[in-house]
Amino acid sequence: MMRNALFGGVNAAVLTPFRDDLSVDLDRMLAHCRWLLDNGCNGLAILGTTGEANSLGIAERIAIMEGLVARGIPADVLLPGTGTTAIPDTVALTARAAELGCRGALLLPPFFYKNPSEDGLFAYYAEVAARVPTGIALYFYHFPAQSAVPITTGLIARLRHAFPGRFRGIKDSSGDFGNTSSYVRQFAHEGFEVYCGDDGALHALLQEGGAGCITAASNVGSAVSAVVYANWDRAIGAEAQATLATIRKVVTSVALIPALKSLMARHTGHAGWRNIRPPHLKLDPAAEAKLFAAFDAAGVQLAPVAA
Q: Rounded to an integer, what distance in angstroms lies between the CA atom of residue 296 and that of residue 307?
């Protein structure tokens, strides 16, 4: 396991709750962030895929960062997703995160134009790195199933050479552990932090020398993830990993983001947790019943929510 990683440990890809009119419910998000920090999370990856960031406007994303910090969430635990298709928007989001005191930002590649060259991607990330404050660490977000844009080891090497110390790590949501391992093998010895987006890979990644996880299922399984992280080299960690893998399988057995929102609605008693921005849709009653039965069968007991 990598020691002293900036976001080492368990990071939830935090859900974004909405009111009935689909505006962001910052107070409910604050309560969820506090609950996550109290139940195994070391960091909070807000404004990512699970947080429906690409269904949010730039002003809304900035308001979420500002609102959470103003309400008492420490900026140094926040890892906001700031990567967009437009360099000015990415720079604006990343710069505001830096101003608020966030230590890192997670950057999707420019994902609209398909099959970009490595030179094109290098130019994009180079422009961002040159324009944002030097005090914030930049993390790649590799999610080819959604972005259709790969983050290769060659690209990483070029950018780390051109901008020493700026590109600190990567979240790999490829679901390909061989790919995740390749990042560790090539760069971890240089202090490059590798995080898995697949909860099922956490234990194996820690044994390889990775830094931790940034995952959707941590919204409901962070306490189990924390056991894996704390016991990565002991039998109890391997046992907890089996439970964690089951949680991941359950929440991905139906549409992932609606599933997590349904679970939070049931757990908190707030039906508003089911609100979701189109094109996502709420789970229908049959799918929700299937989800709840499978989750309960996994034997996971979520900690109570503070009144």
A: 23
Report the 10 Å Cβ neighbour count for 155: 18
Average confidence (pLDDT) over 119-144: 98
Both structure tokens of 39: 């139940």
Residue 104 has pLDDT above 80, yes or no: yes
Structure tokens at 152: 């290769």
Identify the band that residue 305 occupies on the pLDDT scale cut at 50, 70 and 90: confident
Edge-to-edge strand order for the sheet containing 167-172?
43-45, 9-13, 212-215, 193-196, 167-172, 137-142, 104-107
**Which amino acid would we find at residue 217?**
A
For tokens 């996502």, the residue is: 280
* Element containing residue 176 per DSSP (H, E): none
- The one-letter amino acid code at 40 reads G
Q: Taking each helix axis from N to C terminus, what angle separates 58-70 and 26-38, rounded to the nearest 10 degrees? A: 60
- The whole-angstrom separation of Cα 148 and Cα 115 is 8
Q: Tokens 């920090």 identify what position?
A: 37
* Bridge partners of residue 9, in order along the sequence: 212
Does the pTM of the predicted model rise above 0.85? yes
- The CA distance from 250 to 177, in Å, is 20
194-213 pLDDT, tens digit each: 999 999 999 999 999 999 99
How long is the chain? 307
Cβ(199)–Cβ(11) below 8 Å: no
Q: Decide: helix, strand or coil at residue 139.
A: strand
Across 67-146, the runs of DSSP E, i.e. the strands, are: 104-107, 137-142
Which residue segments constitute the domains of the chain, with CATH numbers given? 9-237 (3.20.20.70)
